[in-house]
Fold this protein.
Amino acid sequence: MTVLGVVFIATKGKISSLSVLPEALFIGLFSAIMIAFYSIYPKKLLKRYGSITVVGWGE
């Protein structure tokens, strides 16, 4: 649903054209992928050290 909403915002409902710069669309998609990676990556650290230590060192 979210991806569909982004498509409608980026194209204003016309699938054949973009209403935003391609660079802006790329940066937005890349940012979404990196946020997902950022959320999943510390799984091993959390198991080993605990959330308080990992968050403390991350700040």
Observations:
- The helical segments are 2-11, 22-40, 43-49, 51-58.
- DSSP finds four helices and no strands in the chain.
